[in-house]
């Protein structure tokens, strides 16, 4: 404590430093080294430089080197120290070029007061006219910045004092007008089409606005390393071969950003994958790079062709085109060669422990860890030839991972034909072995993955370096989860097998195929991912936020039509024409320039049962005896003359008269209707589960299958829709006036269309 307060730290700051073992150890070394050169009394400026060195230095091996410059008074300012820290970070290999280092840090550079005076004079002369016009409202920081650019190593305070002095000499003392606050200039407002409303995740909700996804991913926004500067990433391991490998890498990629989206082809993509797709493809696109779609097809037992097809289809549906479609299996030969090399280098061995023995975080060490290299080579060859049964032998790598897991498996035996390589292999590489090496082969610059893979980062770096191959950088981000759903493959399979849902694309699920079938536009999903943001923390969102994104897009994309879910027949007894009239309906009422469609208007129309009451309660504005309503788009108002009921007393038909709206009193409401309609089936969806977290035993003790919402699907078999939609194809979208947004389902047949309700027109307040 005395050592740290002796260099100028407050007692509170010194105690806080002592709580950080690594920092306090470095600072102690730095102070003792400086004392040995300067004596026991260190001035506060030197103490501050020593503290900042210990706190900001990424690689402690350079501590003594930097402290030497501080002790010799060759690094005197924080500006010089920042340049020194950046230099050692950018030059990870020993020995450092001392002359180049000193040039980069301004060592020995002496800036005279005369030089500062001349530089400030030149800058003020350049801006003299604006200074005289704006006086003290001028941005003085601009003058300081330009002078500083000319004299990089000059003391900032000295430059500021000189600027203040020369400005005072030019303008004289401040007047009352100079002391008044400068009025704020109103920012130009963006046109609605230019706006991109994006939000920040705050505890599962979204703030007002932030940047578009591409803005979030562009350039320096994420503090990612530049291609070829992998070694600047904290935790990246530098070997004697690193810089040469990075040079080769840059020669191959031309400095271009390269990412990859690497799904396992053993299931359908879900909403969480949409974030991964947007992040990987979006980061490459935002920075002028390219992105691979690489199937991680290393487990032939679970892979099916339908998953390969569906994954690519969904990537392209979201609007992205892979630079290349590759497979881990493309590289099986190379991966096998590298496995032999790893054994040769004493970094891998054949083990006979059973799977259950090595599960968990504290398994017993393998008794075969130190077996001779030649023996492991022979046994690995036997594994390849099928001489071991499944589970009898594995190839393991000699390392300990962040989570304490020891010696992860690199290869295991599986007597399952591979969909691409057939029976060529009976040993298959694991994710831990395959992933980083495939990234290396494809010269990926940024290996982006979700946070749970952070524990594998050390094995990622270790394996590339153990084989002396190019090592990309793994960056982790937070997963995207939704409430009121499950996305695990195993649980979706259970839902399908128990009949709770029809298949992977059941519109109540949040797989991407299900969202497409329900009618969610890809733009809405991409906008949702942008609003969630590229966060390190896991984001758990409410479904209504995704629905809000869908409404925004569909309001612009889905043409209007009219449909009636619970039809009530209405006969117009004084219909003004002997046959049906044609009514022009705008496709988008807010923008009639986008066209119209025609619908027939006949003596017989159908309205919603709920749009009629025999008695009009207070506040009820729709059709009732004595209370007329307008029929949307027709120019007519109808008035009830007769109510026809069946034997049970249920209203089955209304007889009405019509009057042109320009001669009648304006009604309280206008309702939608259909005439000469098409019969259709409409499927109305609600949440599949009753609780927010159906997988949480504390919330749902009986398990997720006990939490199913019995009202998650209501099928309206005898709905009617206007004939303007007769040529619609699967996935075409419409806004049914007053009802919501709907999409044509692939189950549609000639003569019987099927529509899925995507979302209602407005958010249900009970769901928010």
TrEMBL record:
Classification via Gene3D superfamilies: 1.10.10.2420, Glutaminyl-tRNA synthetase, non-specific RNA binding region part 1, domain 1, HUPs, Ribosomal Protein L25, Chain P
Domain (Glutaminyl-tRNA synthetase class Ib non-specific RNA-binding): residue spans on this chain: 3-156, 159-247
Localization terms from the record: Cytoplasm, Cytosol
Single GO molecular function: glutamine-tRNA ligase activity
Catalyzed reactions: tRNA(Gln) + L-glutamine + ATP = L-glutaminyl-tRNA(Gln) + AMP + diphosphate
Domain Glutamyl/glutaminyl-tRNA synthetase class Ib anti-codon binding: 558-658
InterPro entries xrefs: aa-tRNA-synth_I_CS, Gln-tRNA-synth, Gln-tRNA-synth_Ib_RNA-bd_2, Gln-tRNA-synth_Ib_RNA-bd_N, Gln-tRNA-synth_Ib_RNA-bd_N_1, Gln-tRNA-synth_Ib_RNA-bd_N_2, Gln/Glu-tRNA_Ligase, Glu/Gln-tRNA-synth
E.C. numbers: 6.1.1.18
Swiss-Prot/TrEMBL GO biological process terms: glutaminyl-tRNA aminoacylation
Keyword tags: Acetylation, Aminoacyl-tRNA synthetase, ATP-binding, Cytoplasm, Ligase, Nucleotide-binding, Phosphoprotein, Protein biosynthesis
Family assignment from sequence similarity: Belongs to the class-I aminoacyl-tRNA synthetase family.
PANTHER family hit by this protein: GLUTAMINE--TRNA LIGASE (PTHR43097:SF4), GLUTAMINE-TRNA LIGASE (PTHR43097)
Function field: Glutamine--tRNA ligase. Plays a critical role in brain development.
Name by which UniProt lists this protein: Glutamine--tRNA ligase
Organism: Hylia prasina (green hylia)
